[in-house]
């Protein structure tokens, strides 16, 4: 229905040339922008409504426990928070100040930008359910694995002791009625859309241009030239190209549709989301360069392994 409406608007009412590349790119941009922004608003409202049942006091209590459970809970908490890599740093610092073990805090900080509600919604819209499940599972594994490795290495000596005292603590539990729960979901949906809508449009716009103006033969040539090194190169390329997943998911989807292997495209997206130079600068306030380097190295290695694994499983994931 939407395709027919946008076709009528652009090609009959506005009389654009239906065969022109710019018109086809514009149709794809308008169609995907409306569909994805509306889907994001509805789903984030629903998830925000559901998140009001997550008690913060219970969360803090479980994060201080020993064993595997705190890492799992920290990763789930990261997946439920709508943060990019830089936005998750204040919560990461707050967890450190609250005495949460170092590895557990890293499980949160790694998972938080890799998985969040709007990323999952975008992945569902662009890649479908099987690939989204594979991505979310991989992101959880990377977050938990990174936290466990850092926790086992005993790297607390690399923390700076003069952590800033102005960090905002985790919110206390709030008593909700059905009305306030709905309002919390509505407020979260509006807040997130205000933060990411421009990035969604930029990502869809870039994807539309690539889709209509970059020949598939060029993409195939790049893949053939890089060969087995495509995954680590994509991971390294993603680090300085910091951007939210709201912008990169549509681009990754188009690259995949043009012939970039699935795992390579997702590794590029993961490194952009989880490893960024602004994030490194921000966490330098609380940790030494050695720990930042170890964290980036472990996470990058996990992303590369994930990329190769998804490439191997791609025949089972792609319809």
Topology:
Elements: H1 2-13, H2 21-51, H3 56-63, H4 69-80, H5 89-97, H6 102-114, H7 117-127, H8 129-153, H9 178-213, H10 216-226, H11 230-238, H12 245-258, H13 262-274, H14 277-283, H15 289-317
Helix pairs in contact: 1-2, 2-7, 2-9, 4-6, 4-8, 5-6, 6-8, 7-8, 7-12, 8-15, 9-12, 11-13, 11-15, 12-13, 13-15
Concise synopsis of the structure shown:
The protein has 319 residues and is mostly helical. Helix content is 75%, strand content 0%. It is built from 15 helices and no strands.
Please provide a written account of the structure.
The protein is an all-alpha fold and 319 residues long. It has one domain (34-317). It is built from 15 helices and no strands. The protein has helices at residues 2-13, 21-51, 56-63, 69-80, 89-97, 102-114, 117-127, 129-153, 178-213, 216-226, 230-238, 245-258, 262-274, 277-283, 289-317. It starts with a helix and ends with a helix. Residues 163-171 have low confidence and may be disordered.
Structural features:
mainly alpha; 319 residues
Estimated helix fraction: over 70%
Rounded to the nearest angstrom, the radius of gyration is 21 Å
Q: Looking at the structure, what is the overall shape? A: globular
Mean pLDDT: 75
Amino-to-carboxy terminus distance: 24 Å
């Amino acid at each position: 229905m939407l395709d027919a409406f946008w076709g009528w608007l652009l090609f009959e009412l506005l009389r654009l040339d239906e065969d022109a590349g710019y018109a086809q790119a514009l149709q794809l941009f308008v169609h995907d922008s409306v569909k994805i922004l509306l889907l994001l608003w509805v789903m984030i409202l629903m998830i925000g409504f559901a998140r009001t049942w997550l008690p913060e006091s219970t969360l803090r209590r479980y994060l201080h426990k020993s064993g595997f459970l705190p890492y799992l809970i920290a990763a789930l908490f990261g997946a439920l928070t709508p943060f990019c890599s830089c936005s998750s740093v204040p919560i990461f610092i707050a967890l450190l100040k609250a005495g949460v073990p170092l590895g557990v805090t890293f499980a949160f900080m790694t998972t938080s930008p890799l998985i969040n509600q709007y990323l999952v919604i975008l992945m569902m819209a662009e890649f479908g359910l099987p690939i989204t499940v594979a991505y979310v599972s991989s992101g959880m594994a990377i977050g938990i694995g990174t936290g466990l490795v850092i926790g086992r290495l005993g790297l607390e000596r690399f923390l700076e002791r003069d952590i800033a005292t102005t960090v905002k603590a985790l919110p206390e539990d709030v008593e909700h009625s059905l009305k306030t729960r709905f309002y919390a979901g509505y407020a979260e949906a509006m807040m997130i859309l205000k933060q990411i809508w421009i990035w969604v449009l930029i990502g869809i716009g870039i994807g539309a241009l690539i889709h209509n103006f970059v020949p598939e033969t060029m993409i195939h040539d790049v893949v053939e030239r890089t060969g087995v090194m495509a995954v680590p190169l994509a991971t390294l390329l993603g680090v300085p190209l910091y951007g939210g997943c709201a912008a990169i998911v549509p681009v990754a989807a188009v690259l995949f549709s043009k012939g970039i292997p699935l795992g390579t495209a997702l590794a590029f997206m993961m490194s952009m989301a989880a490893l960024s130079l602004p994030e490194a600068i921000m966490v330098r306030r609380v940790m030494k360069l050695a720990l930042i380097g170890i964290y980036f190295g472990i996470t990058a290695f996990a992303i590369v392994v994930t990329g190769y694994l998804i490439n191997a499983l791609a025949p089972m994931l792609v319809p």
